[in-house]
Amino acid sequence: MTSNRHQSLRPERVLLVESVLRDGLQSLAPFQLGAVTPEWSANLIARLCDAGVAAIEVTSFVDPRRLPCFGAAETLAALLPNPGDPRFVVLAPNLRGLERAAAAGFRNVRAMLTASEAYEQRNVGRSVNESLAEVERMARRADEVGVRLIGGIGTAFGCPIEGAIDARRVATIAEKLAAAGIAELVLGDTYGMAKPHQISDVVAAVRAAGQFTLGLHLHDRHGFAAANVIAALAAGVGQFDSALLGMGSGIVIDDPTPHGNLATEDIACLMTLLDEPTGIDLARLFELAIDVSERIGIPHRSIALQRRNAWTPGPHGA
């Protein structure tokens, strides 16, 4: 029987943040990226909105010399009817990226850093404290230009370089982000190392550090993502990043697979089974996943997509 505590913590609504056009692109080979034009991306965004996806990571305003896959961020923004649409989120790694995003018309910007000193140095060439100082500058500028800044802490459940990450370290960073005015925070399982018990422990530690709307960015390399989602729901977390086909992989440590994220079609079906409304039309979502697979040349390995014919209208269907 479900406990009263479990019932009280369950979120009222589950929000899936589609990240195929941001995190999903980072692991693609150059020959695959040729298929991802700004025009095609804008069309995909429109179709995701039509399918009921309520939040979309549209692009990243990282230096295109470092990640050429985001070299057309401003071009994509110009193709959108309204870059300031509240469903749209973009990533900015620094103050310059925030200013570019604001100038392009976006109003929701995510700023990421990690809880691992070794990972942060290898990823952006800064210490964690230096990255915190950059986020603080971004928060002040965001207020000036009318942008909502969303925080993100990667390697929150483990680091492929350092290993285990203490929940208290994550909470200390979260406390400093709260002091900077960050009200929404995403905790990243950057390399799929989290276990269900860690989810509740880290979430509890971060909640004690500040009043946040919390989300999770889970990877599924070891098959624990679905269990981690259920643990997060029990802890009261109702927001999850995901990507069509499970596309997306960390770029700091060599990884030969383009699959690593939680597949949107899998988590959407899981939420349907759990009677957690997402507002997503599963049939349209499957069509989108297949189209992306064929366009980019990524095989569809998600369980839901392989068994999509089983998802018919009814108590457990779309």
Structure in words:
The protein has 318 residues and is an alpha/beta fold. It has a single domain (12-310), classed as Aldolase class I (TIM Barrel, Alpha-Beta Barrel). It has helices at 4-9, 30-33, 38-50, 73-79, 95-103, 117-124, 128-145, 167-179, 196-209, 225-234, 264-273, 282-296, 303-306, and strands at 15-18, 55-60, 88-91, 108-114, 148-154, 184-189, 213-218, 239-242. An eight-stranded parallel β-barrel has the order 1-2-3-4-5-6-7-8, surrounded by seven helices.
Total of helices = 13
Assign a percent range to the helix content.
Answer: 40-55%
Counted up, domains total: 1
Structural class comes to alpha/beta
Low-pLDDT runs of 5+ residues are: 1-8, 312-318
Which fold name is given in CATH as the topology?
TIM Barrel
In spatial order, strands of the major sheet run: 1-2-3-4-5-6-7-8
